[in-house]
Every structure is written in C-alpha cells, then in structure tokens.
Amino acid sequence: MLRELSIKNLAIIDELKISFIEGMAVITGETGAGKSIIVGAIGLLLGDRAFSDIIRSSAENAEVEALFDIGNNASIKEKLTNAGIGANDELVLRRIISRSGKNRVYINGTIATLTHLTSLSESLVNICSQHEHQVLLNAESHIDILDEYAGIMPERYRYGSLFADCQKLQARLAEIERTNRAKKEREDLLAYQLEEIEKSGVVPGEDTALEEEKRVLTHALKLREWSEEAYGILYTRENSIIDRLKEVAGKIKSISAIDGGLGIETARLEGIYYDLDDIATLLRDYGAGKAYDPERLQEIDDRLDLLRSLKRKYGGSIEGILARAEAILQELESISLLERDLSALSVELDRSSRELLEQAEKLSQKRREAAKMLGRAIEVEIRSLDMPGAAFDIRVSEIHKSGAAIDSLTAAGKDLVEFYLSTNVGEALKPLNRIASGGELSRIILAMKKVLARTGSVSTIIFDEVDAGIGGATAEAVGRKLKEVALHHQVICITHLPQIASFGESHFRVAKRVAGDRTTTEVTALAEKERREEIARMLGGVTVTEATRQHASELLKQAREAASGPL
Q1: Rounded Cα–Cα distance for residues 256 and 263 (Å)
Q2: CB neighbours of 12 closer than 8 A, spacing ≥ 6?
Q3: What are phi and psi of 434, to 5 degrees?
Q4: Is the whole model's pTM more than 0.70, yes or no?
C-alpha cells in the first residue's frame, strides 16, 4: 500500500508530499492544476520513460520518492532478497531525473537499475487511465484479461516456453530439410572436388622440388659444358692440374731426399691428389648425366600448371589444397548424418507438438469455464452502473489455419478471445470495439476492476479520470463501485465529478499558486468543512452558493450512508 509520495522539481511542482491511508482517496482540482503531474510522477516509479524537459525550470534534477507498506506482500520481499536488497515491512522507491542524463534509481537506499524498479513497482501499483480504453478496444488484449481472471498465467508462461521451443525445432527442421533437398547436388560437387585433389596425388613440397628440377633442366647444356671444362682442366687436358700435381710431388720428393728440413709430407700431397681425383670423377659423371630433355621439361610445366590451378581453387598453397581435402571429407560425413538428424528432429518435434497441443487444450478448457463466470460477473457489475439493459459475453473460439494443427497455435494458445456487448435490451451482442462509447468503456473498465479486484495482486489502484463521458446517477453508481474496489485495494481516484469525490475516505485538492513570476502546484488534505466547499465548487463552478453547499452536504451524507450499508 502506498503510504507517502514526495515530488520535487517536477514540471510546475516545486515540492510536495502526500500521505495516504487505506481505502479510497480522491484527488480533485481545476483542469491544469497539476493532477496529471502527480499520476506522471507515480508512472516514473513504475519505470515510465523520463525526459529532461519534465524538470522544473532553473532546477538541475527532479525527484520522485514513494513509501510503501509491504508487510503482507511476501512476493515483493522475495524479489528484494533475490536482488540483494534489504527487505522489511517498508519499501522506499526513489528516482532522480537529471538534465545531464545521469538518472538514478534507489530501492531502500540501495542504488538499483530501472529494470529492478519496474519489476517491483508493477506488483505494487496499477494505473487505470484513459489509455485502458484503447487496451480494452484492442481485442488482442482480451485474452490477457481472461487469463488473469482465470489464474492461468503461470500455466500460460510454461506453455509459451514450450511454444518457443517448438518454434525453434520447426525452424531447425526446416533448415535441415532445405539442406537435405540440396544434398545430392552438394554431394556431387564435393565428391568431384575430392576426386580431383586425390587423383592429382599432391604431396607436400612438390611444387618447390619441381621448380628446382625445371631450373636445372632449362640450363642442362650449360651445366654439362661447364662440368666438362672443369673435368678437362683437372684431368684430361695437356698439362692438367693432376699431371702438374704429379710433377710437383716428384720435385718435393727429390728435395726431401737431400734436405729433410722442407717439412712437406708425402701423404699430404697424396691426400690432395686423391681429393682432386674424386672431384674430377664427380664432374665427369655430373656432366655425363646432364642432357637437355624437352619432354621432361614439358611434363614439369604441365604438372606445375595443374598445381597452380588446384591452388587457385582450393587454398593458395599445397598445404591449403590438402586442408581443403580434409574439410571436404568432414562435410561429406556431416551430410551423411543429415538423414539421421532429420529423423531425430522429426521425432522430437512430434513429441513436443503433442505436448504443446495438450497444454493448449488445457488452457482452452480453463478459459471457456472462466469466460462464462467472468462474463456473468462483469454483466452484473455493468448493469449496476446505470446500464440495466446491458448484456456482456466473452467468446472463446479456436484459431483455424490450413496445415497441421500446430500451425494454428500462437504464443498464447489455440484460442481467440473477444468481448461482446449489447447496451440495450433486444439488441444483438456485437464486438466491444464496434459499439462502446467512452462513458460505456469507463464503466466496463471499472466493472472489470471490481471483478478482478479479488484476484489482482497489486495493492494500489489509481483511477486517472476514468469517469469520462458519465455523470448524474451513473456517476454515483461509479462512486459506489470504486468504494467496493477499495474494500480489497487501496484506491486513489482523480476525478472531476462531485458524485464520485463524495465517496472518498480522504480527499486532496490540487491547486496552482502564482508567487512573483513562478507558478507552483499545491496539494492540500481537506478536512470535512473544506471538503464540502470543494465538492460545492465542483457542483457550482466559480460561484458557490448556500444551495450548492447544501447539495454538497447531501452528497457527502448519502455517500456515508451508502458506505455503511451493504455494497
């Protein structure tokens, strides 16, 4: 329950604080006095989007703070505990809007996120405004209202999760089926690529070795010529190096025979001789083996062309070609598993679909049962709101689409839910959005709030001028109905109608004051005499007479008597 609301520097509000009690509180005042600002401030605590232009001129920040009594609200305490925020019997929500954009949220003095704020406040306060007229006219929202009344929202959430899983399975199955349809074409392509790579017999380093061989073959004649010349110089020509070395050896031997001091060993000369002899043999054999072979050269060019072609197709290098072959093998293996995956997914989807259809049917049965009860209950409440000839019906029908049964399901189930209304005896029931006026919608909304009051979880309901389009006896009936809702919830009602205002257990007047060049909004809690004056003003306008005061006193008296009697 909302205990206190504090607002600072919001629009034309400088600073104000309002204390609320249980039951029904009414807020009245002239148009433009600032009543909507108060509702907007509470909306900020519900997580509404905030703009810097709502900050009062000359101020840097706007601030809204609310104190709630949550002594009997175990779910809120659990949310606080799960969020790591201290929980007791009081909850303080605070939101600061800054021109700099650095907005802040505090929950029980702990800085928090807007998500935390919204999660908590949506279980504390419900604002019923003209916006709900549009919600009620949207047939898509009717199923939510019915499910809330039926108490099946937890089951619907579980169904929704299962529905989402089935959607994912369907998408996955469709993807595999598309892949499977292209399987043969893809397999043929991959098989061709793999055969081309394997048939080529590519081995690591092959291209480098071929380039080296090509370079040698291209220069074969020169290589042979050079090796033969070197061989001749060493061995076969007149005065070859080998022959001259023999002469040198003979001379050294002659010297050593006379003078052993030369110090050149015969074995050393012999080593040089044999080394040169080996080199000469190698040159001879190398030259003999080097011949220009145009056929082999063409073979090498053809092989290099093939390797270059494979590189362009499969990875830019020999290693890339071999890696591509491995990847093709893996993809072919994956494709071979498609049939198995397709079969497994089909079985899983079939099982999930059956379960989903069963859950949808259970939801549908509960909706149909609840629709009868909710329709009758709303009809009773509407008739008591000065619509004695009204008839109200909630129609639940199945969605039918071509294809499998699962294709007719939505995230909410198998049903279409729509409200039907007849405002006068003898008139056919028609969809609500085709016949209801603003005043009738206001009464239907109030009737729903009354019926749903016992099932709703929020402790505070704010009615923001939902009395549009009504007056007189209907206004009194609406006031009585709001009083009945206040038996189960704290009700805060912003109204222009004195008949409704007279039913409040507490009454606040909102007024604008001009001081110097500044306009401010003030909120005053009215005592009994002040309350009579305010209701007289609402009855008589600018001029308040004794007759209007008497009328105001009579309205207050009637409201007290109505409250003391059975509601």
Answers
A1: 8
A2: 34, 37, 56, 512, 519, 520, 521
A3: -100, -15
A4: no
